[in-house]
Amino acid sequence: MAAKVPPHAVLVDGHALPKPVAGHPALEFCNTWAGWGEPEAPGAEWLVDYDRFVLWAEFTGLVPASAAARLRGRAEDAVLARARALRVALYRILRHRDLGALDVLAAEADEANRHTRLTATTETVHFELVDDGNPLLPLRSVALSAVDLLSGPQRNTVRACPGDGCGWLFLDPRGRRVWCSMASCGNRAKVRAHAARNP
Ligand SMILES: [Zn+2]
């Protein structure tokens, strides 16, 4: 029998990853941790090792499958630690507008920018990360994605889910969305409200 996958997860290559709900990869990156601002609960960490980080980055479209295939299965704890530190900093900037966390992002973005090259298609010319086989590739891609989000108007539409043990971020351009997902946090709140009305 297949393992039961909770409504806020998706099974990728046999591993549960957080379901994409955010509308931007940099926000999806923050959503690889659950229960922001609360004591750590079991299952809070989705990026349990470097391999999972690579799998997540490929699934999110931040690294190509060819690069991910070369990086999967490696033990790169130092890179994973930097990714987690960047995630905390990014969440502080996005949710709390805490510019004291900018140094961490700046350092990773600088590192990433040193490994880009100008690439042309028939439509556009843009900077692209070079796949040099370095295990930092997914981290570089996350850092540039974060800069992309923070440097545009979308950053003003970032909202956090108020669900217990959640705090996931998502874009809410119309100002109408409350929950990361109706199927998980929204439903839990509905059940609680129903129980309160019908004790
Ligand atoms: Zn939620």
TrEMBL record:
Residues 158-197 form the Zinc finger CGNR domain. InterPro entries: ABATE, ABATE_dom_sf, Znf_CGNR. SUPFAM superfamilies: Jann2411-like. Pfam families: ABATE (PF07336), zf-CGNR (PF11706). This is CGNR zinc finger domain-containing protein. It comes from Actinophytocola gossypii. The lineage of its organism: Bacteria, Bacillati, Actinomycetota, Actinomycetes, Pseudonocardiales.
